[in-house]
Each structure stands twice: as structure tokens, then as C-alpha cells.
Amino acid sequence: MADAPILKPQPIGGFPEWQPGEKLVEDRFLEVIRRQFRRFGFTPIETPAVERTEVMTAKGVVDKEIYGLSRLAAADDAEAGGDLALHFDLTVPTARYVAQHMNRLVFPFRRYQIQKVWRGERPQAGRFREFYQCDIDIVGNGSLSPLADAEIPVVIHTIFRDLDIGGAVVRLNNRKLLQGLVESHGVAAERFAAALRAIDALEKIGRDGVAAALVAEAGMDAAAADRLLATLAAPVASPQDLAGAGSGPLFAAGLDELTQVVDGMRALGMPDDGYRLDLSIARGLDYYTGTVYETVLTALPKIGSVCSGGRYDDLASAYTRQKLPGVGISIGLTRLLARLFEAKIVTPAGQTPATTLVTTMDRARLADYLAIAAALRTAGIDTEVFTEPKKLGDQLKYADRKGFRFAVIAGEDEFAAGTVQVKDLAAQTQESVAAAKLATYLNREDK
Amino acid sequence: MADAPILKPQPIGGFPEWQPGEKLVEDRFLEVIRRQFRRFGFTPIETPAVERTEVMTAKGVVDKEIYGLSRLAAADDAEAGGDLALHFDLTVPTARYVAQHMNRLVFPFRRYQIQKVWRGERPQAGRFREFYQCDIDIVGNGSLSPLADAEIPVVIHTIFRDLDIGGAVVRLNNRKLLQGLVESHGVAAERFAAALRAIDALEKIGRDGVAAALVAEAGMDAAAADRLLATLAAPVASPQDLAGAGSGPLFAAGLDELTQVVDGMRALGMPDDGYRLDLSIARGLDYYTGTVYETVLTALPKIGSVCSGGRYDDLASAYTRQKLPGVGISIGLTRLLARLFEAKIVTPAGQTPATTLVTTMDRARLADYLAIAAALRTAGIDTEVFTEPKKLGDQLKYADRKGFRFAVIAGEDEFAAGTVQVKDLAAQTQESVAAAKLATYLNREDK
To answer: pTM here?
Structure first.
């Protein structure tokens, strides 16, 4: 085997791979996200990594970003198959899932979906070709109350509170309200989309750029564009403040929805500093028809929205004539984690999920060490037992490098006395503990 | 949109998609598996879904089973890329991962990995093209104690105990011991592999078939083959029973390893009925060099091994000259679940992870219902609040269809009295509970 060719393993651009300590952080995040999704009554679904290519391209998405599949070394093209492709988001699969299983689902259908998605883009700084999305949606059959829109930001607030990264603010708006405002400033209905696209670029091209775009693309005169932008920039404490800001049925409908959403959110326990009304949020996609959300980290606002979504009129128009209005949001977990690691807001943990290493200094007492480990595990303590014939000093070095909190040590004296030594590797202290009380001791100390 | 073409969504053969109730079961299984992997000190890693094609085919695996990736609608072949492929197991990615990150890992490296894998096989009954594998491995640098081999079956025993599907028995053997037995029955070293391959087919082709194969492939005479098969079939209560069954250094080394593994397992709390020594287990792959495992469900033995693995000499010889011996095992979760659903050993749950639905019969009191839901969620109770303007009867029907345990009901009388009605949908009973004590009540009843 010494002559076997050696392949040098290399990272693949755009496909992130965490170190063990980083993966432990990702798992903690996934656990918090999952727990809150379930806490609010969302049920998990999981779709295959692939969809039929015709499903993936049904909405005319740029198919260059899609990875197609083929069987390597197939005898011919038919055998290779070319009709499957990796999903590039979780919205298309969910739409297909809901349409396919509609008769068995109970509506409103509240689902969460945490899966990787793939985009065959050229890799560039900060862009991933494989990443986790964590989505929730509430989908109605025929209709869906704005109360559903009120729940989404509360879920997101609770998650970012529990992630322990300094919290986040959910910014929200309503596209009908925004269209009504645009209309109230003189834009014709057929130019709403152009106006909203211009407003959506506010962070990217700045106020002057948007003003110019509103004139050029949406047919506004400069003064009206200026007044509109001043309205969009003004702080809004509550929907009631907006009563005189616009007029017309679109504006009224949007204001009514936004009022219900804010009232609902507050009744659901959203604190004042957990959300902000922001009239300038448009969300690029015309897919959204009512409430829209963006989420900004309090500790890292400059990375932009880490969690966006909104209300849509019809989830699955490509597959069914049944009207399925819904509201949803998506956390881009991989990008979020990468930014948090870069900014050192989150520090990777050690290389073990366990708190405790049972050392094995005396190989003649192996059975006793294993019994200690077994008892700790039964008591719910994540425990590793050191398996190799090494000196105690090496075992403690190992414990330190791997990031255990405690090392349990016992030799003849301890076995004779019915005790063990517990070394706290964080505090650099050591204590003698009755063997029978070890689990209780570790559970108490591990706070 | 009424004229838009309608695509009929269809299942894709070999790519399973669970219904919500089935997915809740899968999530419960994943949670049990993850918890016990961590309980024993295994740390999670996750590799991309793809590897470079050269890495995937480094060991000469039949590449027809591999799905290659290409960017749809790329301008040319170079842009399409053809150098990436979906992983078909988690062993190749782990070998590459360990070699790539070797300098940052602490050995013995104990990792778990729960991911989907893909195989581009022609779909046939019971075969999946996408499925979950749940793997653990302990990898040493240079050497690894048989104690590591002792831990693996205890993890697996604990998982199958906690899955609540009637338990499982881990069958184990040692390939050195088996080679030593074969040698003691007159087979030459260069025919060990052929003999073990024959023995590995025991369940498939039966005793007579194996006897014939031992004669034809391994050069045994019929009487010796018969004696060997009798030895392999005899029950073995403990390794000590085997003392006289064979001779020679291979046999002695295998027996010594097996003895250490069994002693270690027992010290770690493995009960007598949790494992069985089975000399006929060979595992087809020559990759395994010592301990080998198979796992059979007590309630469903006929589906064969649901969790197999063993000890190997060198994890990553394709990438590094560093010797990395290890031991591991893999649960084929998707296949296991499919068989359990088919056999009705596991029954899919409802369509919600939540226990409690807060109904909303009086739309004027929406804020109060939302506050009740918020309080329950804060108390750790998974809760949905009914969002739509429907009659109470419809809401209760919804609760029933979705599978909630409790429906919380309140009207003017209850609000005036500071109480709520709790309907237990399983027991079909209803009780009045003080609003302030609702969370305590639900936590107590939900046993």
C-alpha cells in the first residue's frame, strides 16, 4: 500500500465544511431553531434533495443556477437520466409537496423545513453553492387570516433571542400599503412594480439613486419622488401613525392588514424592541403580496437581512387551480454562521459534545472506569471514556485539547476510599468526590 | 393564471418522501440517535453532499451507482463542470475529511455523521436512491484499543432500547478469529478471503450452498467444510467457550480481541440479551479486519441486519500514509423506517408536533387567545393557536384531524371567571381549569 497513489484532499469552493467545534455551534443553532418551530406548532417536512427538472424550471427560474444529476458511466443518455436536479430553494419543493399531498394535509398547513439547498453559481467571496435554509410557512386553503402573518415574526424573535447572539429586530412592512403610498404619490398602477423595485434597491444604491430610478422607471416627478422617499424614511411607531400618509383602497387594505399583524404580534408577546415598522422594505419578488419581513442582527446590522419572507397569494399555481395563500420566512443558516464566525460573535466550541472524560490511568481497573462512564451516561451526562493505554498526563492533555469540562481520575487510593478525583479543566481545580455522588456533583457543577 | 399550464406532481421512484406523521416519527428516531451518539462522546461532523469525482472513485467503486453533477444550461462542458458527484456513503467523505483536517483533529477522533446519501441505482422494491445513514466511528492515529470496539455495540443497544420498537440484538464476531478457525480447518492463507466470502453468503444461499462454495472456492474437503460449519453454527455463550475451537496466532489474536471487546461491553452495561456472539458473521467487505457487527431487530428479524460495521486497519490510505485504524457502525435509517411502517411496528403520529390547540371562538377576544398561547409557549408547551374565523365545531374537528391532544376553549363565561375549558381529545373529556394554572395542568396531563 506504500506505493498506492496519494490524493491530496482539497476543499471545494462554495461548499462549506465546518471544523468539529464549528459544527457543534451549527448543531446548537439547529436545535434552537427546531425547538421554536415546534413550540409554535409547525410540523417538519422533508423533501428529496432532487425534483424533476420540469418542476424546478416551471416558474422560469434561471436554470443556469441549477445542478442537474446524471448517473456516471451510464451506458447511454437514456440510462444516465437527465430529468432530475438538486433543489435550489425549499419553496418550489414545498409547493410541489403541498399540491401532491393536498388531500391528506389539514389546512392551514403549518410546516417547517430545514434542509440544504444547492446553487450552481460560480463561487465568489461569501457565496455558497451548498447551504442550509430553515423555512417556516403557514398555508391556507382558499384564505388565510393576517393572524398567521403575526405569528411569523414572533417565532423569529424568539429564535434570535435564544441563539444568544445579541438579538435581532424583525423589520416589517406591507406591500399593499407600499403600493398605496406609491399610488398616493401619483404613480399609475402599471408602474407599481417598477416603483417597488426601485425602492427595494435603497440599501444598495442609496436615496439619490432610488429617487432617480423613481423618476426614470416609475414616471414620478422629482418632487413627488422626494416626498415619497421622505415618507418612507420617517420612523413609524405604530400603524396608527400612518393614517394620513396615503389614501385609496390599496393603502387602506394594507394599513388594515399591518394593523392586525402588529396587534397580533404584540398580543403574542413580541416586545417593543423586537420589531420595527419600515416602509422602505419592498422585497424584490413580486411573489409577495402583503406583509413582508426582513431581520437584522442587533450586533451585526451591516450584513443585512439574515431572515426574510412575506405573504403570498398562491403557493402552488403551477400544480393546482386551488388557491393556496400563505406566509413564510427563511433563515439562511450557513451564511449567518459564516458571518458570526468571521465577526467572532460566536466562538467555536471544543471537539466534543461531552462534558466529562473518564480517564483510565490503571489498565488493571478498566472495568471500573467503564462502569463509572456507564453510570454517568445513565444519569444523562455526556461522557467519553479514554480508551488508549497512555499516561495520565497525556490523557489530561487530550481532555484539555478536546475541550472537556471535567476529567474523572481514580487510582488505587480512590478505589479503596470509594471516591474519585474530579478535575475541572476550565477552573483548573480538583476535588475529591464520593463515587456514588459523582453524577449529582457533575450535574450541579456544569452550569 | 387560470390558463397557466398545470404540472401534475408525481413521486420520483427511489426518493422517499414521508407524510407529516411519518416525518414526525423520523424526527423522533433522529433525536434518539443523536442523543445517544452525543451521550457516548461522539462529535458531529457534516461534509458537503458532494465530493470530487476522483475522490469518490479512488477505491475503484463501481461508478455506475454514483450521481454526477452538472450545471444545467451551462454554455459549454467546462462551465458545466463534471468533477463533482453526490456521495454514496459517509465513509469516503469521512476518510477525506480526516485526512484533510488531520492536523486540527484530536485522536482518537470520535465522530458521528447523520446525512443523506445517494445511489443512482435503478429503483426496485425496497431499494432507495436517497436515504439517511447514521454513522459513528472511532479513529485512532497509529493504533486503537479494542475498548473502542467495545463501545460501539453499547451505543447501538442503547439506541434501539430507546427507540421503543422492541429492542435489537447486536451480533458480533471477529474476522481474525474467523480466519483462524478457517485456517484451523485446513484452508491456506491465500484462500481466507474466498472462505469468508462463502461464509458471508450463509443467510442467502443456506448451509449446503456454503459447504459447496467452501469446497469449490476455498479448497476444503467436504468433511472439513462440514466440521467448520458445525463450529460456526454452535451457540457461543462467551469467548472462553471458544478456547479449543481453533489454533494458531490469527485465532489467538482474534480470540484475545473478542474477549476484550466482550469484557468491555459488559463493564459498559451491555445486558446479556443485548448481544450475541455469532461465528458465522463475516461481513462481505475485506475492509474489515477485526471485530464485525450486525444488528437484528427482535420484533422483525426477517429483514436482516439494520445496522452493521466493524474494525478496519486504515481509514484513509488513499489520502495519507499515516495509519488510521478505526471502528464504526452505520444505521440505515430510511430503510429501517420503511420496514417498521410496513410491519406496522411504528404508527405515524398526527400532523403536528404540538400537544395543544388554543381555539378562537370569539374573534373579539383574539388578543386574549393569543396571550394564552404565548403563556403556554413560554412554559415550554408546544402550542398552536387557531388563526381562521371558523365555528368552534370546525376548530375542534381541525384539532382532531391534526392530532392535537388538547384543545383550549374560552368564551365570555370563562373569561369572566378566569378559567378555560380544556378538552382532552384523546380521552374525550372536558374540564374547567383556572387560567393561571393552565400550563401546569397541561404539563401534568400530558404523560
So the answer is: 0.96
